[in-house]
Amino acid sequence: MITCGTLVLQPVQPFHSTDSGLACDGVSVAAVAEAEGTPVYVYSACALRTAYRAIDEAFASYPHVIHYALKANSTLAIARLLRELGSRADANSGGEIAVALRAGFTPDQIVFTGVGKTPDEIARAIAIGVATINAESAGELDRIAALAAAQGREARVALRVNPDIDAGSHPHISTGLRSNKFGVPLEDARAIYCERRGLTGLRFTGVHVHIGSQITTIEPLKRAADALVSLALALKSDGFALEHLDIGGGLGIPYESRPMIGPADYAAAVIPALERSGLPVVLEPGRAIAAPAGALVARIVDVKRYVDGRLFAVLDAGMTELMRPALYGSFHRIVPVAPRSGVEQPWDVVGPICESSDVFAIQRMLPPLDVGDLVAILDTGAYGAVMGSNYNRRLLPPEVLVDQGRWTTIRRRQTLDDVLALET
Ligand code: LLP
Known about the structure:
Strand content: 25-35%
Bound molecules: ligand LLP
Number of strands: 23
Distance between the termini: 51 Å
Number of helices: 12
């Protein structure tokens, strides 16, 4: 961990330049690209472990369990690696629950969250006995109750509250405002619990909040925890035997290498509130664990030099492999894989898709680049591969995990036959 005062500069830096080019924990990125082809995702097992442990250690003084948010990256090998570290899982769909089970998580290690769960998803979650279903509405609680009663079971549930707190993140990934579709208004929650007290099929085990992702200041996280604790205390006084508080995920990472809050600041800000509740806390981090561990490695397939001086580097990766820049205008560091010297110039680094939003960086200062060069787009271990698509009939890229000086392919490149197998 590189620190700057109490602020974290970069949680983990698995990708580093050497005289022979970019390496991931000592493994040549160019060698991986040569063997696997491009585009390819490369992940560091060491970085995943370090980031997980940083959160675990930050909360060491308070009873906690980490349910890694599979939505950030649920490739089986990565889910397994986190399970081996002691993580549990946060699943957002029936598909993610199934992946969690295949990765070896037991049902009682899985929390099931998600707006718009289908009856089939709910019934299956009840049947296998997940740790908690985080319900999104009063109506969903009633549907869970009915489905559980029909199975003669009791579903362990927490209601997700919306505290009307601005996470200060990109609007597309802020979820805690009243205008967002997530959860129930905080002020309605107590009545919703009380009206359903003793309902056959339901057992209220906790309360849940998640106000957004890539949160880079402490205040909204602290306010959300405070609000959740106040609700939990009110419910306790109403006689609910709550077992936990779930404060969701959301901790951001320093994509732009500027010092910002890290796990220790987060823990220090929320633990005093949690202590008031006397309840263990569930954490659902995704990005803070997976993002810094991954890079998308791509090759430059064309270079355009316009007379007005504008420079474009066209990659063989685009928004189909990494959607974040097109969707949120998000920033990712881009570094040449081979050492490059020469005067830096402003480059537009773009993808090959026929969409003008298929752009990774505009006017980014980079050394001279040429067709055939490899570049690495950093901090793409979370919400990268998982958000890939087959648009333009492009094939999902392979994923590689570097561990202790060796690398293995943890997902092979998709083939056109894989894609067409679904079609008549
Ligand atoms: N828990 C819940 C209920 C969530 O909805 C999320 C993320 C998490 C936990 C994990 O949050 P994290 O610790 O990763 O911030 N595609 C976007 C991010 C969407 C996040 C959705 N929910 C992106 O690329 O930035």
